[in-house]
């Protein structure tokens, strides 16, 4: 509707659309349409399209989807996944900076606490960190020296900034990040999360691992393979 409104008021308007997550770019191109002189759409000619695949990424990025049976309430399923994290980290990203996306603020703190208490299960333990200045959050004071931290909007601005800097400088190896609630992430959110794994400042390659219910494995495999179709509501 926004694009249609712009064209009604200005037939010469040029529309430039950019997305890192849309898979059916050809459909979007046809919907936008090619404009001729005077801003008139030329029949069913699609708009000019430039597609940049994974080969243009600064570092290669692999994607894995792991499914687990969910026989309890969702928050218990989330907690059960915590017990699987050390093995998953050892298998897929030993010694590498790791972002763990959690459903809620409480889940991020619980996961951080669990990993800190079970840091000995990791095959590559983070280097101990000496805090010259304490955090205002007590859990961060306990977990950060072990190389594990969490991040969400409930932290003070100072604590959030310090956690971000420590992760960027690789002083902490594992960062648990809070989402918005006990609900499935939007597809675009998941793809944005995956994109953060392939950053050259963190290594020569990136890995994204999606942990989900067994019944959702097929959906997420299609999503990470770029096979989900974006449609208008």
Automatic annotation (TrEMBL):
It comes from the Eukaryota. Keywords: ATP-binding, Helicase, Hydrolase, Nucleotide-binding. The keyword S-adenosyl-L-methionine does not apply. One of its GO terms (molecular function) is 3'-5' DNA helicase activity. Its EC number is 3.6.4.12. The keyword Nucleotide-binding applies. It is an enzyme of class 3 (hydrolase). This is ATP-dependent DNA helicase MER3. It comes from Coemansia biformis.
